[in-house]
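[INFO] parsing input record for Transmembrane protein
[DEBUG] input buffer:
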Amino acid sequence: MIYFTQDHCLWMYYFIIPGLIVIDVMIPLKIVVLSMINQFRIDKIKNQKVLLNEQEMDQIIQESNLNIYSDQFLN
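[DEBUG] output buffer:
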C-alpha cells in the first residue's frame, strides 16, 4: 500500500477522520448521559431509603411513647 496518494488521502478525509471524530465524541457523550441517568436513579433510591428510615424512626418513637404511657397507667 502506498501512503499519501490521492486515493489514500481521500479515504482519510472522508472516512477515517470523520469516523474518529464520531467515536471521540460519541463515547464520552454516552458516558456522560448514562452517568446522569444513573445519578437520578441513585438519588431516587437514596430518597426512598431516607423516607423509609424516617418512617421507621417515627414508628420507634410512637412505640416507645406507647410503652411509656402504658407503663404509667398500668402502675
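[INFO] The chain has a mean pLDDT of 78.
[INFO] shutting down worker
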